[in-house]
Every structure is written in C-alpha cells, then in structure tokens.
Amino acid sequence: MHIARPGSALLAAAVAVTLSVTALPAAFAAPSSSAVISEVYGGGGNSGATLTRDFIELANAGQSSFGLSGFSVQYLPGTPSAGSLWQVSALSGAVAPGGRYLVAQAAGTGGTVALPAADATGTVAMSAASGTVALVSGTTPLTCRTAADCAADTRIVDLVGYGSAVVREGSGPVTGASATASVARGTSLADTDDNAADLASGVPSPVNAAGETSGGSGPGEPGGPTEPGTVRVHDIQGTTRLSPLAGQSVTGVPGVVTGVRSTGSRGFWIQDAVPDADARTSEGLFVYTGSAAPTVTIGDSVLVSGKVAEYYPATGTQSLTQITAPLTTVLSSGNALPDAVVLDASSVPDGYVPSAGGGSIEGLALDPAAYALDLYESLEGSRVTMADTRVTGATTAYDEVWVTVKPQENPTARGGTLYASYEDQNTGRLKVMSLDAARPVPAANVGDVLSGTTTGVVDYASYGGYNVQATELGTLKDNGLKREVTRKQKRKELAVATYNVENLDAGDDQGKFDTLAQGVAVSLSSPDIVSLEEIQDDNGAVNDGTVGSEATLKRFTDAIVAAGGPRYAWRYVAPADGQDGGEPGGNIRNVFLYNPERVDFVDRAGGDATTAVQAVKTKKGATLSVSPGRVNPTSTAWDSSRKPLVGEFRFRGESVFVIANHFASKGGDQSLHGRFQEPARSSETQRVRQAAEVNTFVTSLLKADKSAQVITLGDLNDFAFSPTMAALTGGNVLKPLITTLPAGEQYSYVYDGNSQTLDHILTSPSVRRFDYDVVHINAEFADQASDHDPQIVRFDVKGQGKGHPHH
After folding, report:
1. What is the secondary structure of 677-729 as a DSSP string?
2. From CA 116, how far away is CA 219, in angstroms rounded?
3. Residue 463 neighbours by CB distance under 10 Å
4. Is the pLDDT of residue 467 over 50?
5. Whole-prediction pTM value?
6. What burial class does residue 140 get, using C-beta atoms within 10 Å of its C-beta: 0-12 exposed, 13-18 middle, 19+ buried?
7. Euclidean distance between CA atoms 240 and 373, whole angstroms
8. Distance from C-alpha of 671 to C-alpha of 578, rounded to nearest angstrom
9. Residue in 12, 108, 68, 169 with CA at minimum distance from that of residue 787
C-alpha cells in the first residue's frame, strides 16, 4: 500500500486495512510528512503544576497509520555533558492518521490532574525548562550530542529541542517551557525542521490515541442550569463552516440527545427540536466529553454548557464544531427524536463543493442547495436517513462501509461508483459506521445493498470526511459479487501481468501468501511474466540493513506451485538500504516473476541499486546494457521512492522489454473533502518527474529500435486523466490500456467509495493487437489479500501487424 490513497486529489490511499508509511528522511533533511512530536511537557508533578506527570505526545500528519513497533522516544538534557546519556522509552502500537499517541513519563509530587490513559509509559524525569526529545526508529540509545551530529543520524524521525537545548532542529530551540507550560505544534502540525518556528509554548493539552484529554468533565454533573439559555444550536453552527461563537462559553444550550459514542472520541450529539428557518444552519451538534464516558442516553432532553470549539481531525481537513468541557443537565428522558432529513438522489445536489481558488472555503456562506459538501455541513450533527443504499466501498477492518444515496451516479459494471475526473466528483457517497456496538456494520462487498432504512447523525472525520454515525442500520442484501478469473493465454500469446501485493515479506502469515498465490495461479491463469509491487526485504519492517528478498520470493513462488501454478523464477535489483520509501525498514521493491518453461529472461550483469540501464542499438534491434536494471536510479525524481525495474525477455525468438513501476504515493495531497478547494496535489510533482524519466527511457528504446515491444506497467499511483499519465505517454511512445475498456470497467482500486485506477499497463506502438483485462479479486471485497486488483495483457509477439486492438 501507500501512505495515502486518492480520492482525486488525494489520499491515495488509505485505507481500509492496516496501512504503511513511506520511509522518513533523516531529521533536519526535510520536513517530516507523517509522525511528528506534537507536544513536550517536562513540568508534570512540579510545584505549581496541574498535571502530575511529564509527557511526550506524538501526532500523525500523514494519511496512513504510522506503526511504532520497534520505535522509541528518547530524552537528552538541554545542555548535555560528556557523560549525558539519551534515555529511552520503547513504543508499540501505532499512531492513527490524524491521531495522537501519548507517552507518559515520570511523575512528581505536585499536581492534581492525571494524564488521560497513556499509550506508552516511560520513567524519564524530563526537565521542565530545557531538554531534547527525539522520535527514533529503533530502541538503541542515540549517541549524538550536537545538533549537527544528530542531523546526520538517519534513525531520528523527528526531534524537538526546547528551552536552551543545544540539540534542536533549525536555528534555535522553542522557548517558553516551564512547570505550567508545554511546547506544542499548531493544529496544522507543520514541520519545517525549525523548532522555534514550528512549536510554541502554551497550556499543556495531552491527548491519547483514543482522543481523550485530561480533566474533561462529563455529562450529568450537578449544578448546571435548569432553564435554557439564550444560545441555540443553530446559533453555534452559524451559516459557514466555522462557528461564530468559537472560543466562547455558552450556557444552557437545549437539545435532545440523538446519538452517544462511548469509545474513541467520546461524546454525544444533541439536536434542537425547534429549528430556525435558515437551511444553512445545522440544528445538530457534537458534545465532546473527553476522557469521561457519556452518561446520557438517546432521547434525553438536556441543557449543555461549555466552550465552543472547532476540532480539526487532521491537517487540511475541515473542522467539526463541538462543545467541550461540558456541564450537562438532563431535564427528561424518553423524548421523541427530531425528524431525520432524507438523503437521496433528489435531495443531494450534483455540485460537489464551492471553489476558493485553492484557498480555504471555511468563511464562505453555505449553499446547501448547490453543493453536496455544503449540504452535509449544514446537517453536521443532525439526524439523517437513507433507504436501500448501494455499497460502493467494501466494509473495512474498522467496521466502516461506503454507500451511495445516488445509485445512478457513475455506476460501474459491478456495482461501484466510478471516479471519472477531478471535475466530476461523486456527491452521493457517504461513509457509514455504527454507534451500536452490538450491531456493527456487516461485512459487505461492493454492489451489496443496505436494504431498508439507515439512520444516524452526520459527523466529520479525517478519513472520508462526512459520514453517518448510524443508530439504525439497514439489513445487508448480498448481491453475490464474484471474484473474476481471466482466461488462459493461448500458446502463441505472451501474458504479462502487474500485481501490488501490499508489503509482502517472509514474516507474513501463510494465509496471505496462499491467497495472493491463488490470485496469480488461478485468477490470472498463471501469466508468463508478473510484475510485483510492494515486495519487502525478508524481515519486513525490521530496520537492520537487510535488503534481500529471497526468502519472501521463495515462500511466494512455493505457494503459487501449491495453488496449481508454474514454478516461477524471479529477478530484481535490491535497493540501497532505506532509499526506496515504503514502510521504514521494509526496503520495498519491484520484482519480476517469470515462467522459465514459457519465457526466457536475458541476464546482463552489472545492474545494481545505482547503475542506470541504457538502451543499446544493435544490428538485430535494441538490447539493454544491464538486465535487470533500473531507470536512472540516482535521479532526484526517485528520492525516497521505488525505482523502476527493467528486464529484457525473449518469447518465441522475439525480445520484449518490461518496465515495472511503483511511483510515489499520494501522501501529502490535500483532502478531496477538506477546507482547501480546489485541493492541491503536491505529490503529483514527483510522479510527473518520475513519469518523464520512464518516458525518456522508453523513447531511447524506440530510438534504438522503433519496433521494440515495450510493456510499461505497475502501480503508478495516479489516474488515466492525470498529468502523470500525460507525462508518461508524451510523444505517443506509450498507450494506456485502461482507456480501451468500457467506461464502467476502468478501475482497479476502490478508495472512499470511489472506483478508480492507480494501476496501469501501457504498451509501445508496435503492440497493436492485445487482449487486456483488469481482474477484480480484491478492491471490491471486504476480505482482500491486497487493496489492488491485478491486470493482465496478452499479445502475440509475432502477430503485431496492421489491425485494430482488441481487449
């Protein structure tokens, strides 16, 4: 997988399974794009302190879960002596995308308020005034004592020096830390590798992975008002995405409890039973209770007092308006709930979101009749209902499912919703989660239906944006989606496939190997050549310098034989340790499998991690200088990213050149549903440069032999209509085969309920007649071995005369 999954501009990724992250650069070399140290407090338990313990808080600014197994946080005094040692606190678990992770440190004798439940606990007594904290890949103590030496240590993911710390990022440490003040990043989690610029001092505000904070008061305390105040929910929500009362305290806000969430981000929703006449102002609102579990129940009539706040679940997202630190008075129970707004094809507009020319739309007045995201914002926290919704994104490991309230909106042939262009967003998609632990979202595949009524409250989260927290779920209607099996290639046809096998390493369980092998041997009917993406080194995420993948490939090819496939051989070029992105320590790479009973691999020595393959012109046509080899691997286009693998094959006496790709992920792109519209696709810049490098190489092959048969394929992390594809096909040197399929079949990946294409096969002009197929076995299913569907092309290497392509 990738750090992120797209929706359009974005996210690639995500999603729906345990996610991996791209390798992080050395500290100070470039801003961290994922895990950062978000807050440091060394005054816990000191005289005058409120909190009883020191803490270090981590945050994940990326779009994928950041695994912490094998990582540590380490502390060094602000002015280290020769004998000063880094003190280590080991970590486990993960930081969720947009989430926090709390490391409790030593307690003092002062303070009265405990931290929320820690995600990890150390024993380090940090200085309140000055020190250095590092997030480290590994648990071996650091040895650096200066900023320059620490900058050179590639194990350091992020580092914060505060007070007068000698070791810090940038020109100086962040100042202002004390017994009563922490140092913390802003809500954007900006990390420019300059501590003084990125962090500031303020009131300590620890948050754990469950979203719990310290000192949050829960509902039901005595002493609250018994009569409504002057402020109503619609006054708090206002006519834009931001509350006009943000930061202000409110008293006695009336409402009926419509939903209760007792895990994760705890709290409850209220809705005013007496709405105003303005369609822009929501009548619903989330009340955040922090570490305290809500004690109200659905149907309670309540008065809520507290502070109005805007919560941003992740960088670039929109905010969720809420009341924090609430004091709640229950007036009565068993009340009727306000009517739910019906969401369907007639009520949800076709426009997606207004434009702000790339700026923030937060200050724009909502127009719920024109834009779907404005409609959902105008219903934030309110009850909605929808009937007979078709599933467009299979149920995830987090018990979430994507549905559409517009069944005729860009339908695919198999029941999904096609993502057609940046301008044509699918407005009917919504993510559904259940608030009833006793009735979680059922395991559903694309094309299934939640039959009957699904009702709940509209919420907003970093992944997927607007969603429905269901209090009532429809019944699953299984429409029997089947995994596809492509036909066997004919004797004279060469079959070439691409398959992203999602961070496969020798330590994975046998079930994953067996399912992926079944995909190759049965679903793909044993292609002659298979380009694999996301093969890791043999010990996976263990970061110990291992770069070989022999054990991984032996297990995989053995599993293919057991599934009835051929005994594949393999070729790859091992990356330099830590240089190809992907999960830290995993050393992800592209690999060729080939069936030596059907096709020959032409080995030419000299290919390594840094040697560029060249096209060589001979009297018999083009050959490669090295095989396998890599496309210009020292180009900065490939920084922290997988380098294309090039191999020369022989089939029926003809040369075929195959280029396996895995372009940079969409991590860092702004959200499709975020506050910046239109969203910036920052990751696209690198992919366009990568595409240009591959295009240049293909051009050199065709210059050496204009009839060279070239297959370029793999996970390009971009769409057929993207600038990346334009750069790759420039000069008509390559033809993208995905566009030869009927529109409703042009997808290989499902993200946020959008069926879209990240994986591609492209052919050179001499490949005129072909049979191309996307084989749907993963992306549409709740039970999946990978989040990608494989693709295959079959063609007669000797039958490429005049004629029309077929597929």
Report:
1. SSPP-TTHHHHHHHHHHHHHHHHHHHHH-TT-EEEEEEE-SS-TTSHHHHHHH
2. 17
3. 26
4. yes
5. 0.75
6. exposed
7. 12
8. 28
9. 12
DSSP state of 541: T
- Tell me the three state secondary structure of residue 372: helix
8 Å CB contact between 321 and 269: no
Query: In the prediction, which pLDDT does 800 show?
Result: 61
Calpha distance 130→521 (Å, rounded): 60
DSSP string, 281-315: S-SEEEEE-TTSPP---TT-EEEEEEEEEEE-SST
Q: From its phi and psi, is residue 358 left (phi > 0), alpha (psi between -120 and 50) or beta?
A: left
What is d(CA 765, CA 600) in angstroms, rounded to the nearest whole number? Answer: 23
User: What residues are paired with 497 via a beta bridge?
Assistant: 530, 792
Question: Which SS3 state, helix, strand or coil, does residue 71 take?
Answer: strand
Residues 194-211: tens digit of each pLDDT: 999 899 888 888 988 887
Is 377 in contact with 282 (CB distance < 8 Å)? Answer: yes
Q: Rounded to whole angstroms, what are the CA distances from 395 to 124, 241, 264, 781?
A: 42, 29, 19, 8
Nearest to 637 by CA among 685, 570, 584, 604: 685
The whole-angstrom separation of Cα 715 and Cα 642 is 11
How many Å apart are CA 668 and CA 230, to the nearest integer? 43
pLDDT tens digits for 674-684?
999 999 999 99
* Sign for the pseudo-dihedral over CA of 62, 64, 65, 70: negative
Spatial distance between the Cα atoms of 750 and 397, rounded to a whole number of angstroms: 15
Give the DSSP letter of residue 216.
Answer: P
Share of the chain above pLDDT 90, in %: 79
**First-residue to last-residue Cα distance in the chain:** 28
Instruction: Read off the pLDDT of residues 208-243 as tens digits, 9 standing for 90 and up.
Output: 888 777 643 333 344 568 899 999 999 999 999 999
Query: Tens digits of per-residue pLDDT, 408-419?
Result: 999 999 999 999
Angle between helices 510-518 and 550-562 (to 10 degrees): 60
Pairing of strands 529-535, 493-504: parallel
Pairing state between β 53-60 and 100-107: antiparallel
Cα distance between residue 120 and residue 55, in whole Å: 10
Spatial distance between the Cα atoms of 672 and 425, rounded to a whole number of angstroms: 9
Strands 320-332 and 284-288 turn out to be: parallel
Residue type, 442: P
Q: Look up residue 658 and give its two tokens.
A: 């195959």
CA-wise closest residue to 475 among 566, 535, 387, 372 = 387
Contact 99, 265 (CB under 8 A): no
Maximum distance among all Cα pairs of the chain, rounded to whole angstroms: 94
Whole-angstrom distance, CA of residue 546 vs CA of residue 585: 8
With contact defined as beta carbons under 8 Å apart, do 622 and 704 qualify?
A: yes
- Give the amino acid at 575: P
Distance CA 636, CA 175 (A): 36
